[in-house]
Design goal:
Number of helices: 31
CATH class of the domain at 770-903: Alpha Beta
Strand order of the largest sheet: 1-2-4-3-5-6-7-8
CATH topology of the domain at 770-903: GMP Synthetase, Chain A, domain 3
Strand content: 15-25%
Shape: globular
Number of strands: 35
Helix content: 25-40%
CATH architecture of the domain at 770-903: 2-Layer Sandwich
């Protein structure tokens, strides 16, 4: 890569032009994170052909000094009112062979002040003159922020043969007509305020860095403001604001429209968008607009970040470099595909199309038992789906649109979801159990164009600022009936099902957030069809089967499988609301042969079984199969369930939102020897078409990159899976997807475990909960299994406290409810705890059988769990609690205040993992 031969003076003095030039080059003073060796002044012609002095930050000379040949250049363009300081971390973290040129636009930063305003078209021309002077011939990746976005994209379109990639951070090329311009900018552009806010005072300059979350350090804010200390030096700040072409008659409107339209020519260029959705200027609506223009773009959102996304989320710089090395320079990425396996090798499985099966049109399809109770046949459902699809199309729903569906399970939810799929649109689903804040954040992150919901759900969407047009439905079904009637009257043609691409997105489903913020999981239509097909193959779903849908993820698949289903009288988003009597009613409604229910639902069924009538017990003796998923299911609970559903086999499919199911077995069939010798929780053999590998844990607890050529029994590590029904990707979380997809085509589950000699998979906990002791990594489930066998111990959790790499093991025990050790805790407040009695502590230490000494044994009356499943112990919160107890913190902090702060309510109790 050639470089400019211009002298790298930090300040060039030219008396003849001193009046307009002012200071060029960095001044003296502290600029945190910026190396002065990057600073240089470059002479280049502007749009009018005049030679101007540009200040740039450029690591090219440093590369030459080290004898490195630059293979690719990143051209970084700031917006208003920042300067090249914005890109200091990008330069500092540049990998070998990557040159970064971060410019100060004319009139901005420490570049020359031309003395007159510059418009968008001129700035694009100016940048071209600079890159000519620098001798940048390609390959070049553009990187931009704010109004640097249109400038850099204009340059990219004019230098297409040099362009290797595009990276954008919080910017825009178009103002959607249906939305008003950002209030902050409208206020700044007000005729009576513009000069005062943007030039005469530093208000606009200071306000930009004040948007950051968390607040930036004072010295960093000062560094951003340093080029704009006088009104004269702020002239271009005001000019930039004046040049925003909101009006159709604005002089710069043609230039901006040309940039927007020209993006069609960049659809084959790798693109990445790094976004802060809390930006009051370039909000998520501009991200959505850019994605319609550059649909190939990868996205990385940082939910808590604002306008200066790389300041608020500095880790985004590492993501940019990781993306560049993987995407623009793929040869730099090591292939860790298991030896002897092609990346795309997957055992084919049956696929069940995601539309209503109408082979038995007169048979009942869905019965809902809440409220007044309704039922619908397959034929009626298929007709209703088509009519609602036409009604939705008339409301503006188009193929590819994302549609958030906030409707309770039942006939209306089934109708709406299949209607969305019938149109080739994308269903967005998030569990209400996430809580108001996280639910709103999840839906916002998906960027739905439409929200279909009951009134209370639409009110929630408005409160949490979820985008999209609103389509209201009523809990009694009347509104969906009206929508269907409108569609039937309209009679518009629907897309030919054969014309809908199976590789197109079909659904965005959100994880529970049990070990971090909820992530959107994207399934293509083909992967959804493979998931339904795998359920049919694995569990024998066929003609004559009927099921009770008490587990939300499976509640929608009955119509596609041609299986009649009953939705019990319960809140499916709160599984513990299912009673034994409600289950009996649902089984009777369709003469169900199968029951799908979450562990929390089964726990309440077992607890309420004593109130069953003889007739209800007879009904519950009918089903042949009980499926329970969503969290590990204790064998003791399954035995209790089989006392209620006496003829049913129990199966516990193992999986996660990203891949369900992966494996399955009936835990009640395990021998006592299996349970005692097994390391963790046995979840059975991988299902047809599913491949499982183990990425061994290193001494530091970090899983290996290499999976090996074949499963290795007894090796403990991260569970890695592959199959045709595994997620396509994480939605707008490129970094999470890159971490999870190693090697390509596989999914790293975040669970740890091992395969035994019979090929069965044993889960030993979450990777995030592995205790990295000085003696090596320790997985929690095996330790807990051994301690749980102690007489009088109802439950136990093993957690780690202390510094990484040298954590100490702490056991937290829950005594049985009556007698034994529990008498020591009488009168304790909820969540209270203390050191275990010496004899109990000694017994627990001996039972744990761990190489690392157990630092402490604590006792409390319940274990905190995540709110959604009411089954998974929140070991992260529990570790903080334990550390607080051992460090003598106050009773209020120890007694569960942390958990109430996390969930907004008292955390539920549990006796399971």
């Amino acid at each position: 890569m050639s470089s400019s031969k211009q002298p790298a003076n930090h300040r060039i003095h030219d008396p003849a032009r001193a009046q307009t030039q002012h200071q060029v080059g960095l001044p003296a003073g502290t600029l945190p994170g910026l190396e002065r060796g990057w600073s240089r002044v470059v002479l280049a012609r502007d749009a009018e052909g005049l030679t101007r002095r540009w200040h740039v930050l450029d690591n090219g000379p440093a590369l030459e000094e080290r004898g490195e040949q630059a293979h690719t250049t990143v051209l970084a363009v700031h917006g208003n009112p920042t300067w090249s300081y914005l890109w200091r971390r990008v330069i500092a973290q540049a990998p070998p062979g990557w040159r970064v040129v971060a410019v100060d636009q004319l009139g901005m930063g420490w570049s020359e002040r031309p003395g007159r305003a510059r418009n968008l078209g001129q700035r694009i021309e100016d940048l071209g003159g600079l890159t000519d002077a620098l001798g940048l011939t390609g390959p070049v990746v553009t990187l931009a922020h704010d109004w640097g976005g249109p400038v850099s994209l204009g340059w990219a379109q004019r230098h297409r043969t040099q362009l290797a990639g595009v990276v954008l951070t919080n910017t825009a090329v178009h103002q959607p007509a249906e939305h008003a311009p950002p209030p902050v900018i409208r206020l700044a552009r007000a005729p009576g305020l513009l000069a005062q806010v943007c030039q005469r005072t530093p208000a606009f300059v200071r306000a930009t860095t004040a948007l950051s979350l968390p607040p930036l350090p004072r010295e960093v804010r000062a560094a951003f403001a340093s080029p704009y200390r006088t009104a004269t030096r702020r002239a271009a700040v005001a000019d930039f604001v004046r040049d925003i072409p909101f009006e159709a008659t604005h002089p710069s409107r043609p230039a901006l429209d040309a940039v927007a339209e020209g993006l069609d020519g960049l659809r084959d260029v790798p693109a990445l968008m790094v976004w802060g959705p809390r930006d009051p200027v370039f909000s998520s609506r501009y991200l959505e607009d850019l994605l319609t223009r550059l649909p190939q773009a990868d996205v990385q959102r940082y939910e808590s970040a604002s306008h200066l996304v790389l300041e608020d989320a500095p880790e985004g710089v590492g993501v940019i470099w990781d993306w560049l090395q993987r995407t623009v320079a793929p040869g730099d990425v090591t292939d860790v595909t298991p030896a002897g396996e092609a990346q795309d090798s997957e055992t084919p499985v049956d696929e069940v199309p995601i539309h209503v099966d109408v082979r038995r049109p007169e048979e009942v399809a869905v019965v809902e038992l809440s409220g007044a109770g309704r039922r619908i046949t397959f034929g009626e459902l298929a007709t209703r789906v088509d009519d609602v699809a036409r009604g939705l199309a008339a409301r503006g729903v188009q193929p590819g649109d994302r549609v958030a569906v906030l409707v309770p399970p039942g006939i209306d939810l089934t109708t709406v979801v299949y209607a969305v799929w019938r149109l080739g649109a994308v269903v967005v689903v998030a569990d209400a159990g996430l809580g108001l804040g996280r639910l709103g954040a999840a839906l916002r992150s998906a960027g739905p164009r439409h929200v279909i919901g009951i009134p209370s759900a639409l009110a929630l969407a408005a409160l949490t600022r979820v985008p999209g047009t609103r389509i209201r439905v009523e809990p009694d079904g009347a509104a969906v009936d009206e929508l269907a009637a409108q569609g039937a009257d309209d009679g518009a043609p629907l897309p030919d099902p054969q014309s809908l691409s199976e590789s197109a997105d079909g659904a965005v489903l959100f994880t529970s957030g049990a070990t971090g913020p909820p992530k959107g999981v994207v399934y293509t239509r083909q992967r959804l069809a493979a998931q339904v097909g795998l359920l049919r193959t694995a569990f024998g779903f066929g003609p004559g089967e009927r099921f009770v849908a008490a587990f939300a993820p499976f509640a929608l698949y009955g119509p596609a499988l041609g299986l009649p289903s009953a939705v019990p009288d319960m809140d499916v988003t709160a599984p513990h609301t299912l009673t034994a009597a409600a289950l009996a009613e649902a089984v009777a409604a369709v003469d169900a042969s199968m029951v799908f229910a979450a562990p929390a639902a089964l726990r309440n069924v077992a607890a309420t079984a004593p109130s069953l009538t003889p007739g209800q017990r007879t009904v519950l003796a009918g089903p042949r199969l009980v499926l329970s998923a969503g969290a590990p299911v204790p064998v003791e609970l399954l035995h209790q369930v089989r006392e209620v559903l006496t003829a049913a086999e129990t199966q516990t499919p193992y999986g996660m939102t990203e891949a369900l199911p992966v494996a399955s077995l009936d835990p009640t069939g395990l021998t006592e020897e299996d349970r005692r010798s097994g390391e963790g929780v046995c979840v059975g053999q991988p299902l047809p078409g599913v491949q499982v590998r183990i990425a061994p844990l290193g001494a530091d607890g970090i899983p290996a990159q290499d999976l090996g050529s074949a499963p290795s029994p007894g090796v403990v590590g991260e569970i890695v899976v592959r199959g045709p029904h595994v997620k396509d990707r994480y939605d707008r979380q490129w970094a999470a997807q890159a971490r999870s997809e190693r090697p390509a085509g596989w999914h790293r589950t975040g669970d740890v475990g091992q395969l035994d000699g019979d090929g069965r998979l044993w889960v030993q906990g979450r990777l995030a909960h592995v205790i990295d002791t000085a003696d090596g990594p320790l997985t929690p489930y095996p330790v807990e299994n051994r301690v749980r066998r102690l007489p009088g111990v109802a439950d136990v959790a093993a957690v780690g406290i202390g510094p990484a790499g040298a954590r100490l093991v702490v056991l937290v025990l829950v005594p049985e409810a009556r007698g034994g050790w529990s008498t020591r805790l009488r009168g304790a407040a909820p969540g209270a705890g203390a050191l275990a009695p010496a004899d109990l502590a000694a017994a627990a230490r001996e039972a744990a059988e761990v190489p690392t000494p157990v630092a402490a044994v604590l006792v409390r009356d319940w274990l905190p769990v995540d709110v959604r499943h009411a089954s998974k112990v929140d070991r992260t919160a529990l570790a903080r609690w334990a550390e607080g107890v051992l460090h003598g913190r106050g009773a209020r902090e120890r007694a569960g205040g942390l958990l109430r702060g996390l969930t907004g309510r008292q955390a539920p109790r549990t006796r399971s993992r």
